[in-house]
Amino acid sequence: MPQMRPLDPAFPIDRQLAVDASNVVLVNLFTLEAADENSFLKAWQDDAAIMKRQPGFISTQLHRAIGDSPAYLNYAVWESTAAFRAAFTNPEFRAKLSAYPASAVASPHLFQKVAVPGVCVG
């Protein structure tokens, strides 16, 4: 299981899951040792396949940091925190977390779009 390190220690993912919101985006930053990249990618692929089958899942995308940094950023769009909470606590998903390499550190956080006039829509 990857180590969990909140992006915002004052409001970690377990507290975020208790907030009812719609149209949420999970942003999850992963750091790991370079030697573990292949096993990380396999573990991520397996758990993403589980998440894609869950009600309320909309989409996901994985990005790798440029250069020599073995950091990855995943974002996943969900219909609601309730849908994400159900998927995140799904026993099949939780069982797959043990496949992540020991060096992997996950920093998940939920967000909602913000409208900024003249720049972006909410």
UniProtKB/TrEMBL annotation:
Entry's Gene Ontology molecular function annotations: monooxygenase activity
Keyword Oxidoreductase: yes
Coiled coil region boundaries: none
Domain of life of the organism encoding this protein: Bacteria
InterPro entries (UniProt xref): ABM_dom, Dimeric_a/b-barrel
Gene3D superfamilies: 3.30.70.100
Pfam family, any one: ABM
Domain annotation ABM: ranges: 23-114
Lineage: Bacteria, Pseudomonadati, Pseudomonadota, Alphaproteobacteria, Hyphomicrobiales
Protein's UniProt keywords contain Oxidoreductase: yes
Keywords: Monooxygenase, Oxidoreductase
Protein name, UniProt field: Antibiotic biosynthesis monooxygenase
